[in-house]
What we know:
Elements: H1 3-17, H2 22-39, H3 44-52, H4 66-92, H5 98-123, H6 141-150, H7 157-181, H8 188-206, H9 212-229, H10 235-242, H11 255-278, H12 283-286, H13 294-320, H14 332-341, H15 346-356, H16 361-389
Helix pairs in contact: 2-6, 2-11, 4-7, 4-10, 4-11, 5-7, 5-13, 6-7, 8-9, 9-10, 11-15, 13-14, 13-16, 14-16, 15-16
Amino acid sequence: MASQPIIKTVTRQFKALFVSDAFEGILLIAVAAAAMFVANSAVAESYRHLFHGELFPSATFKLNTLHLWINDALMVIFFFVVGLEVKRELISGNLADPKQRTLPILAAIAGMGVPALVYMAIAGGEANLTSGWAIPAATDIAFAMGVVGLLGTRVPAVLRLFLLTVAIVDDIGAVMVIAIFYTANIKLTWLVASLLVLGAMFAMNRLRIDRTWPYILAAVVLWYCVLNSGVHATIAGVLAAFTIPMRRRNGEPLLENIEHGLVGWNAYLVVPVFGFANAGVDISELGFDALLDPLPLAVAAGLVVGKQVGIFSCVFAADRLGIAKKPKGCTWAEVWGVTILCGIGFTMSLFIGELAFPEYRLLIDEAKIGILTGSLISAVMGYAVLRLTTSHPEEKDDPTSPVV
């Protein structure tokens, strides 16, 4: 029957989504949509109580809500994987070669600085909003690569690599911002304890201890010390990752194996759970006109305008000045499309938003509206530009490339 080839094609493309980068992006979209739906449904109060209801008095332990456990404990796994990825890239990946890392580093710096300036230009006049300057500075790797995955092989591999590298450097910058600018009152005793544990972990590395369990135990102790030190607890994940040896004594990869073992849990459990717990906003409390308030408008503009202007201008200037060449074989329109996708700031932006306004639930919700709006516009706009400007014939021959 004539319908059978069509059915087989659709089935094949549906299955391809689950083995491509696209599925992670689709999953995050679904999670964000589900969180928004639940937060504005009849079970909204149950949703809020589930994540923000006290499990026990804070005097017993400071993580006394499920929301705190997710953001300050579960997300340590996310930051640990980020740390593993960064270390691997710095030692043996794209950031190891000075020639290859120049452009992504410059682009990432511009892609963090310009959105912050756009944010401050819109919201900087209100003193209680200035702490949110870093919210639009982050790029969500999974979300951005997911949109690229929807385009199959239309997007050249070199351009995918550029996007991935910029996002990784962006993550490094975001972690530094969290550690430096979103740190509470430092408790010296706990900070010293954290440094001693971290030193012990580096000593284990130097002694070539290649079993995983000593590092896991030490990482848990490090997390507990950092949690009580005033530095945000998730920084412990990044620091612990840097102590993991690249290889075992017999030459077998260790860091890469741990990374591969955790990446699925990170993508399909940690980040979706975080997204569901943090993306829900009760629109009825804010009103649909809240997007025009200074905070959400500044965040959305920073993501949509600041990201693409900062990164594209940097790449163009670096190419024209001979500092670094744009991705080989790519047109400026294709580069522009990828820079737009850098405005997707879901995971890290939501995380920074929670840190920026810890005592102001209304401001956190307004920041979320700006993040979700800016990320959605960047995703749709970036997809459209790349769809219209890229055309690679090999896409037709690739059975795993989604048809969109």
